[in-house]
Amino acid sequence: MPGQVNLGSYTFVPETKENLDWAELVTLDLSKYSNSEGKQQLAESLIKALREKGFFYVKNFNISQEAVNRQFAIGRQFYELPVEEKLKYVPEGLDQGQFNGYVPAGRRILNTKTGIRDRVEIYNVPKFNGDFEHNHPQLVQNNIEEIEQFARLLHSEVLDPLHTLLAIALELPEDYFRNMHKYEAKSEDHLRYMKYTKFTPEENAAIGYWSRAHTDLGSFTLLFRQPVAALQIRDPIHNEWKWVKPQDATLTVNACDAMSFLTGGYVRSTIHRVAAPPKDQQHVDRLGLLYFSRPHNDVVLNTAKESPVLQREGFTQNEFERSGHPVPTVEAWTFAKQKWQRTKGARIDDEGFRTAQILPGFREQIYA
Q1: What's the fold here for domain 27-362?
Q2: Which domain of life is it from (predicted)?
């Protein structure tokens, strides 16, 4: 651990006392990953979770709660910086899909009648593999070695095992997906500090959702536990919306678009949304800590047709392959979807926006 900078203590707000309709999600215990029998059991649990829910928990991933709390403390202090300081780190080309650095709130209209805009702020930190410039506020720069170590641990202790387990489940070589997700290669992975500033109860009643139903664009998204209940997922089998309960000492993980393309839709890109929190938590802001994993930029998003499982189950083509359009690289896919996501002034009820063509062969959908 690098010499630590004093960040103060970080205290999580109390969990809701409301009786919400919680999703029943599988928990993968990575302490079982060290032997072949445990790997096989975990692989079976993982593919079941991905096929039936799309979200799951991971525990025992060799990162201390203290290290996690320090990252939340960095995020909290970043969002306490003056707005004019944060705005210095807005990426050039934000409207064209660039995303590393600070993305200010208010780019999306949540309620057209009242004009209420989103209050989501984002700070993205790219990989530390030499491909990206790291120009950060002094607060972040003072903790940069610790941030790098944390990001690398997420890759080695969580993502590498998950990619291995998925390959085992699909009867592919164990390194099949790991070889597309090497930390040293250029990809658009990033660590994110994310803040949802609270709305009044009246505003929450008017907007309903802080973020409409959507899918993520990469391979896996890692979400650290924070107790403000807001995340909801759509059960892919029954199409029912369920709340995701914060579980102690776990990561919440979901599969994303790129992984769905790579498996011909066998792994589902999970639909989720961010709702207004329950009434006993509407008085606080919601701070998130996330990591977004994506394949290397030059990977072409073809279905892994060599998988015996995908062949047996009939999942041998993704949307691009079925349409006859060129299958994009991850880089082309990433920036096309990011450009759509970053559309300034987009209205949450604009069907043209919500069903836009991202690339020939793929169009967004209205999920809810």
Answers
A1: Jelly Rolls (2.60.120)
A2: Eukaryota
pLDDT band at residue 5 using 50, 70 and 90 as cut-offs: low
Among 3-7, 243-247, 262-266, 279-283, name the one with the lowest average pLDDT: 3-7
Distance CA 91, CA 342 (A): 12
CA distances from 59 to 14, 38, 55, 105, 190 (A): 21, 14, 14, 32, 21
**CA–CA separation, 12 and 287 (whole Å):** 10
Mean pLDDT of the chain: 95
Strands (E), 114-255: 116-117, 120-126, 190-196, 209-214, 220-224, 231-234, 241-243, 250-255
Q: What is the CA radius of gyration of the chain?
A: 20
Distance of CA 4 to the CA centre of its chain: 27
- Our measurement of the distance from residue 206's CA atom to the centroid of its chain's CA atoms, rounded to an integer in Å, reads 26
pTM to 2 decimal places: 0.95
Give the tokens for residue 33: 């990953």
Tokens in use for 154?
């997420």
Domain boundaries, the chain: 27-362
pLDDT digits (tens, 9 = 90+) for 327-344: 999 999 999 999 999 898
CA distance 159 to 172: 17
Residue 37 to residues 42, 44, 174, Cα–Cα distance (Å): 9, 11, 14
